[in-house]
Q: What sequence folds into this?
């Protein structure tokens, strides 16, 4: 079933096809209200679909290849309507990234190790939990030997970071001795995480930029029960959380650095969540935790940041001395901006080996293109076969992809 065939089926007006599956976003006034939909879906689906519970709603991702997928989409929409949770298809998008490489095998091997991703096909890697963005690899058309203006920040447990260095047989470099590079110079800052707090009350939690924990679950009902408990505790504490349900477990995440705003208060909430999980006979597996964000070097940071904020519908983090922009629904990765020396003209002119893919519904693509151009972007390749290539004001590229 093609994307157009799924979209033309009756009763799926709430849904849009992005990549290989269909997605919907349902607004909710609280995490408890969103958890009610999670519970309904757990009862409906034979296997738990990907569910991302947020303070403002729930994203649902299912297949889009059969009549059974259409039936499930219709049933989920009906459950949301019954609970008074309206759909907002304009909220749907997926930010991914791609690397151009002369030796794709070697470069893929590096990133598979650094990110702990798994092969999705011959030319791409993916997070097994489908929380962090997939990465695809394309043939490098000409040498681009200078440093990219785009890099990755990844945080994992200290043991995992040391295991990566051992597996790659390399030492980190850079100002903080955190930077690793693949054989063609594409860089990642691999940051070791830490404990949330001292004591057994929060032993299940780790800090990898955000404060996170992961609980393997054995059934949709068990996952939904945990999500319901977490939502109630989060609402009572007035602390929005990211709760991602997958067939093999539930990730609970504060969002980047947000636990630091009131660390003692968050630690108390984390302790209550841990106790609730233990009451459900769940044991944490911190080895599954990871944080990924993108960094963009720019000479005119405000202009470049404005382009990406506009294109992605992101917001600028208001905290002092923070250059981050973030998805207000906390569904897509954070982007940070770092000052680049204007005298580094050769590096500024070089085309990056890394670019972004922004996957949006077909009915949103032109509006995104128009907004990006109005924010200082340039169209490098006119739309063809559902893809349009743009550059930000300093040449970093993004493909807007609209599946047909």
A:
């Amino acid at each position: 079933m093609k994307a157009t065939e799924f979209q033309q089926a009756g009763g799926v007006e709430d849904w849009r096809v992005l990549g290989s599956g269909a997605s919907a976003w349902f607004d909710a006034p609280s995490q408890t209200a969103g958890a009610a939909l999670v519970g309904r879906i757990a009862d409906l689906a034979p296997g738990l679909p990907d569910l991302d519970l947020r303070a403002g709603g729930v994203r649902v991702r299912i297949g889009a290849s059969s009549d059974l997928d259409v039936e499930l989409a219709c049933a989920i929409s009906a459950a949301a309507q019954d609970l008074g949770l309206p759909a907002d298809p304009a909220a749907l998008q997926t930010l991914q990234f791609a690397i151009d490489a002369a030796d794709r095998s070697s470069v893929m091997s590096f990133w598979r190790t650094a990110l702990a991703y798994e092969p999705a096909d011959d030319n791409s890697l993916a997070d097994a939990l489908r929380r962090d963005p997939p990465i695809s690899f394309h043939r490098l058309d000409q040498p681009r030997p200078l440093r990219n203006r785009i890099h990755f920040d990844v945080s994992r447990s200290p043991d995992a970071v040391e295991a990566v260095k051992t597996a790659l047989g390399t030492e980190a470099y850079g100002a903080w001795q955190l930077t690793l590079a693949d054989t063609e110079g594409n860089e990642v800052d691999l940051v070791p995480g830490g404990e949330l707090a001292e004591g057994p009350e929060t032993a299940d939690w780790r800090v990898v930029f955000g404060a996170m924990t992961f609980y393997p679950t054995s059934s949709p009902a068990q996952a939904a029960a945990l999500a319901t408990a977490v939502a109630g505790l989060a609402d009572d504490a007035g602390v929005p959380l990211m709760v991602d349900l997958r067939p093999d477990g539930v990730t609970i995440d504060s969002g980047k650095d947000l636990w630091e705003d009131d660390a003692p208060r968050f630690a108390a909430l984390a302790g209550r969540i841990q106790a609730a999980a233990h009451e459900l006979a769940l044991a944490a597996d911190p080895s599954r935790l990871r944080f990924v964000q993108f960094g963009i070097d720019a000479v005119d940071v405000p202009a470049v940041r404005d382009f990406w904020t506009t294109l992605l519908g992101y917001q600028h983090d208001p905290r002092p001395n923070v250059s981050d922009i973030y998805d207000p629904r906390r569904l897509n990765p954070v982007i940070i901006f770092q000052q680049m020396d204007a005298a580094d003209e050769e590096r500024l002119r070089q085309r990056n080996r890394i670019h972004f893919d922004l996957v949006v519904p077909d009915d949103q693509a032109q509006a995104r293109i128009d907004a990006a151009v109005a924010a200082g972007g340039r169209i490098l390749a006119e739309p063809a076969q559902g893809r349009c290539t743009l550059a930000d004001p300093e040449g970093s590229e993004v493909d807007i992809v609209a599946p047909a």
Summary: The domain at 94-192+290-401 is CATH 3.10.180.10 (2,3-Dihydroxybiphenyl 1,2-Dioxygenase; domain 1). The mean pLDDT is 95.
